[in-house]
Write a structure and sequence with these properties.
mainly alpha; Ammonium transporter fold; two-stranded antiparallel ribbon; 16 helices; 6 strands; about 5% strand
């Protein structure tokens, strides 16, 4: 028997390929087990299994949808175009499995015509972009824990990825209309809305959709809203730690090569996050007299989120400023606005609208304010570079573009998520019944997070 191995051409850069696969795996770890642990530890004991399980389900469901159609909807050939010459809205629903041809060199999706191909196969790019798509509905899940039906979640995730996520990703990253909005508006010094690694596509979208879903599905039981203590703070911290360090792949992988910009993105990420964690902790101490582990985790998340759209475009000072603002503003919206009767009507369990939504806007607008034109993002050669100039460096156009981009993501996600859930609700119940909500994991899955066993049997509780 003769074995013939097809080898790629001389374009393969093993270093770039290894870094891109590693960065993608770091991002994957942020979801499983990162957010699975964070959610599983942050909720009441009776919801630990359900919360973690829904993370694993979403990761799997998005991958299948991504490979079969959603990747090309997000990064493929233009399909639907907006009127007035605005540009393409979403890509074709072509299957992506053909991308596994190892001789097919990857291209940068949003600039395929203007920039060279990358030094690794298209499958690497599909995998890298998948982990970003997967974490987005998982972040959304934080708003609706403790009452959303698992069956409804099973239907919602692939549909939301298809009709909501893919549009945002294509519009900003896949060569869609937002990436060229500056040219359409006649701005000579700004090409389009900038989202370095997902502040708008991932975090703002998931926060707005999560808040909308929380409003439609309805609140937890009153007793759960009044008392929803974490069942294991150490597990929550372990998940948060994986989230923080995994973010190195999030922002370090988006130059698409193992170049100096990857280092800039990683360092800015951790600098902003440290500043945000310290800021939130200080505000907790000043307001309540004591530091809080959950507060520190929230501060960490806000810093990670806010630096994401700006990581490759701001200098170190800009990263610290974004980190401080990223914690201060969500802290205020959470502790002041979040306690008003109007906001309390929507049961956003983990405050995703604050930690991801408000923080994403801080970071997105931070690009328009603080982007340093000397922070040039390189793609391979000196001829393949992108620089962005913020308001503080003399260009107000980018700031306006960032506002337009945020407005589109907010409106589209509210409307799209509302319609999607109303349609799903015609076929399955979106919210579990009250009896199931009283019991939790044992009623939904027949499993418990911390069961004690003797000879294979649960130890009976006195009085049972």
């Amino acid at each position: 028997m003769t074995i013939v191995q097809a080898l790629p051409g001389n374009w393969l850069d093993t270093g770039d390929n290894a870094w891109q696969l590693t960065a993608a795996t770091f991002v994957g770890i942020m979801s499983i087990p990162g957010l699975a642990l964070l959610y599983g530890g942050a909720v009441k004991k009776k919801w630990a299994v359900n919360s973690a399980f829904m993370v694993f389900y979403a990761f799997s469901a998005v991958l299948i949808a991504w490979v079969l159609w959603a990747y090309n909807m997000s990064f493929g050939k233009p399909w639907l175009n907006l009127p007035f010459g605005l540009g393409p809205f979403v890509g074709h629903l072509d299957p992506t499995t053909s991308a596994y041809n190892m001789e097919k060199e990857a291209i940068i999706p949003s600039a395929a015509a203007a920039m060279p191909a990358l030094g690794y196969g298209q499958a690497t790019m599909v995998y890298f972009q998948f982990v970003f798509a997967a974490i987005t509905p998982i972040i959304l899940l934080g708003s609706i824990l403790g009452r959303v039906s698992f069956k409804a979640w099973m239907i919602f995730v692939p549909l939301w990825t298809t009709f909501i996520y893919s549009v945002g990703a294509y519009s900003l990253w896949g060569g869609g209309w937002l990436s060229g909005l500056g040219a359409w508006l006649g701005y000579k010094d700004a090409a389009g809305v900038i989202d370095y690694s997902g502040g708008y596509v991932i975090h703002l979208a998931s926060a707005v959709s999560g808040f909308t879903a929380a409003a439609i599905i309805g609140p937890r039981l009153p007793r759960d809203r009044e008392s929803f203590q974490p069942n294991n703070l150490l597990i929550t911290m372990a998940g948060a730690g994986l989230l923080w360090l995994g973010w190195s792949g999030f922002n370090g992988g988006d130059p698409f090569t193992a170049n100096a910009d990857a280092g800039v993105g990683v360092l800015n990420t951790h600098t902003a996050t440290a500043a945000a964690l310290l800021t939130w902790t200080l505000m907790d101490v000043l307001a309540y007299g004591k530091p809080s582990i959950l507060g520190a985790v929230n501060g960490m998340i806000t810093g990670l989120v806010a630096i994401t759209p700006a990581a490759g475009y701001v200098n170190g000072t800009g990263a610290i400023i974004i980190g401080i603002a990223a914690a201060a503003l969500p802290w205020m919206t959470w502790n002041w606005l979040g306690k008003t009767s109007a906001m309390r009507k929507v049961d956003d369990v983990l405050g995703v609208i604050h930690t991801h939504g408000v923080a994403a806007i801080v970071g997105g607008l931070g690009v328009g304010l603080l982007a340093d034109p000397k922070m040039i993002e390189w793609y391979g050669t000196k001829n393949d570079a992108v620089s962005v100039t913020g308001l503080f460096y003399g260009d107000f156009h980018q700031f306006m573009l960032q506002i337009y981009g945020a407005a589109f993501i907010i409106v589209y996600n509210i409307v799209g998520t509302f319609i999607l859930l109303k349609v799903i609700g015609l076929f399955v119940k979106l919210r579990m019944d009250d009896e199931t909500l009283l019991i939790g994991d044992d009623a939904v899955h027949g499993e418990e997070a911390y069961a004690i066993y003797a000879d294979g049997q649960k130890v009976p509780v006195l009085g049972d």
